[in-house]
Amino acid sequence: MLKQSLINNWATAICEIAKEENKVQTFTETLEDLSKIFESNEEAIIFLSNKFIPLEKRINFVDDIFKKEIDVLILNCLKLIVERESFSSVNYILQSTIKKLWESLEIKKGIVYSTIEIDKKFISIMEEKINKKINQKIKLENKIDNSLIAGIRIEVANNVFDYSLKGKVEDMKNSILENRK
C-alpha cells in the first residue's frame, strides 16, 4: 500500500481536475462505480499492479475495459496510476477522492446497517428523509450487521437513527433500569 500522503496527493489531484472541468458530480458517480468494480474484482488490481507484466499491456487493458465507459480524464488518471506503479492502492485512492469530492459538494457520508442488503431505491428514500431531518445532503452506504436482529440503524453526521429491534430492546432495558431508581 502507498503511504497515506501519496494516496492523499492522488485524491487531491483527481479532485482538482474534477473541479477545474466542472465535473464534480459526474466524477463522483463514476469513481463510486469504479470503486465497486475494483472491490469486487481483486484480480484486476493484481493484474494492473504486476510489474512483471509489460506496462503497455496493462495500459491497453485499462483502455479496452473502460475507454467507452468513463470520462477520458478519469481514464487517463487510471492509466497514470498504473504507470506510476500505484495501482495496488487504487481502492484507497478512489475512496479518498470520493470523500474529497463529497466534501466539495457538501455531502456527508453515512452508513445504513441492516440484516439484509437494501435496494438503492429504498436507500434514496432514506437519504431524502434524513436530509430533511438534519438539513444536510447525505450519501448512505449499506452495510450488513447481523447483530441488529431486524430493522435498520443509520449513522450519519454524528447522528444515530436506530430503527432496529436491538435498539428497541436496549431502549426498553434502559427505561426499566431508570424506573427502578
From TrEMBL:
KW NAD (keyword) present: no
MF (Gene Ontology): proton-transporting ATP synthase activity, rotational mechanism
Localisation per UniProt entry: Cell membrane; Membrane
Major site of localization recorded for this protein: membrane
Topology class, membrane: Peripheral membrane protein
InterPro entries per the UniProt record, alphabetical: ATP_synth_OSCP/delta_N_sf, ATPase_OSCP/dsu
GO cellular component entries: plasma membrane; proton-transporting ATP synthase complex
Keywords attached to this entry: ATP synthesis, Cell membrane, CF(1), Hydrogen ion transport, Ion transport, Membrane, Transport
Keyword Ion transport assigned: yes
Coiled coil: none
SUPFAM superfamilies: N-terminal domain of the delta subunit of the F1F0-ATP synthase
Assigned protein family: Belongs to the ATPase delta chain family.
PANTHER family from the UniProt entry: ATP SYNTHASE DELTA CHAIN
Entry function: This protein is part of the stalk that links CF(0) to CF(1). It either transmits conformational changes from CF(0) to CF(1) or is implicated in proton conduction. F(1)F(0) ATP synthase produces ATP from ADP in the presence of a proton or sodium gradient. F-type ATPases consist of two structural domains, F(1) containing the extramembraneous catalytic core and F(0) containing the membrane proton channel, linked together by a central stalk and a peripheral stalk. During catalysis, ATP synthesis in the catalytic domain of F(1) is coupled via a rotary mechanism of the central stalk subunits to proton translocation.
The protein's name: ATP synthase subunit delta
Provenance organism: Spiroplasma monobiae MQ-1
